[in-house]
Amino acid sequence: MLPRFKEFLDYSKDDTREDDAVKLKLVRAADYASDGYEMCKRLEDDAYWDGSSVLCELCEDFLDEMYRAHREVVKEWVKQYGIKLNAKLCSRVRLYASTAKIYDDCELAEIDEEEATVSIYCPALHVRAGTGCGILHQIHPFESKFWEPLDAK
């Protein structure tokens, strides 16, 4: 991805003097960015880069690649360390919400064995949308302090 950003910035592909600075700006802008537009906006505000649609597309591709690489590393880590979940699909779980509330009426809606995450369905946390009721699923790592199984195995 670095060559694409260097081309966007009109840097010579052979000149490596600015590579570390460009990488640092990309990593800082990507930190907590939810999409390419947000990352592009940070680069525009903090690094004074031209916030064009081309940069937004580059940032979106960068984030996609970063998330893909992260998922691959997590899958390898799960496999290498034999991480297993001690609960079954649809089993009851307790969810500790960020508001210091505890919800005992939740259940495991999905289990991703490869990435060691669970999706938790909690009826008390339904989200009202404009045309109907959406369902909130929270995704947590197997070894998270924000949830625990309630059903005995």
Task: Write a brief caption for the model.
The chain has 153 residues and is α+β, with helices and mostly antiparallel strands. It is built from four helices and seven strands.
Provide an overview of this structure:
There is one protein chain. By secondary structure, this protein is of the alpha+beta class. The protein folds into two domains: 2-81, no CATH class; 92-149, Roll (SH3 type barrels). It is 39% helix and 22% strand. The protein has a five-stranded antiparallel β-sheet with strand order 6-3-2-1-7, with no helix packed on it. It has a two-stranded antiparallel sheet with strand order 4-5. α2 crosses α3 (36-46). The model is unreliable at 128-134 (pLDDT under 50).
- Outline, from the CA principal axes? elongated
Question: Could you name the ranges where pLDDT drops below 50 across 5 or more consecutive residues?
Answer: 128-134
- What is the average per-residue confidence, as pLDDT, rounded to a whole number? 86
β-sheet strand percentage: 15-25%
Number of helices: 4
Q: Measure the end-to-end span.
A: 47 Å
Q: Helical residue percent?
A: 25-40%
- Main-sheet strand order equals 6-3-2-1-7
Secondary-structure element order, as H and E?
HHHHEEEEEEE
* Structure summary, number of beta strands: 7
| Total count of domains | 2
Helix/strand/pairing class, anyone? Answer: alpha+beta
**Rg, Cα atoms, Å:** 21 Å
